[in-house]
């Protein structure tokens, strides 16, 4: 029961991040499932089955808040579903001994990308309004869908920063569109895993726990996307993913590092992570300080307070 509650809380927290940043539900949830010893293919299948529900609710919530561009959803979601199905069947054929370190390496790379991308550059805003073309979104969706299935997450980490980096779609619509299109990826990946490994290794209690937490968080995250600074959140999530998957690799059979080496790595990661968070916060505050203050509404002369009349008379 304690494990189910933990999974529900992870699902809630991961969806809060995913819905407000456009990434990290799958990466965060899969990382936890791997850490507690779940088969890599089963871990990814569990997360994608839960995502069918969470992405449906998340997409509906983003639509209600006006965060969705349906043209982007169609152009990236359909090729993404093809890539997700292919990635799921590919991962299902790998042995657990091979798949676990491979998945951890993919997740670690995604974590580094998230941390560096959002810490160093933040969000680009100088290309807003220019169209996103199919020749860009199609290949992006195909690659992101494949990475998502094989890594247990990656649709958001690959798709969201790429669209944000183009600067052609405002951040809230980028996040809302990527989250909404992820429903297609979750369905396709789940079908691929059911074809590849069947349903024997999937714990549907874990699926339900992740789903419940994610469904609770989805509407809140769709509202938060207008208020939470993505730069700071991206740095925070990237550090968590890097730390957890470094731990998995160092403790695995491929490396099996001694305690001293592991602790040294952890110390370096904590230091870099803290520095990245501090830098992101400073940059966010600096960007806010550069914004022009909102103009105060003019007050008609006949409605001016008495003190103002006295001050004008005295001059």
Automatic annotation (TrEMBL):
Tell me how this protein sits in the membrane: Multi-pass membrane protein
Q: Where in the cell is it found?
A: Cell membrane; Membrane
Q: Which organism is it from?
A: Actinomadura vinacea
- Ranges of Low complexity compositional bias? 292-315
- Pfam family of this protein, just one? TauE
Q: Which UniProt keywords apply?
A: Cell membrane, Membrane, Transmembrane, Transmembrane helix
List the InterPro entries: TM_pro_TauE-like, TSUP/Inactive_protease-like
Organism phylogeny: Bacteria, Bacillati, Actinomycetota, Actinomycetes, Streptosporangiales
Ranges for region Disordered? 288-315
**Top-level lineage group:** Bacteria
Family of this protein: Belongs to the 4-toluene sulfonate uptake permease (TSUP) (TC 2.A.102) family.
Where does the UniProt entry say this protein principally localizes? membrane
Give the transmembrane ranges: 40-60, 72-91, 103-123, 181-198, 204-225, 262-281
Q: What is this protein called?
A: Probable membrane transporter protein
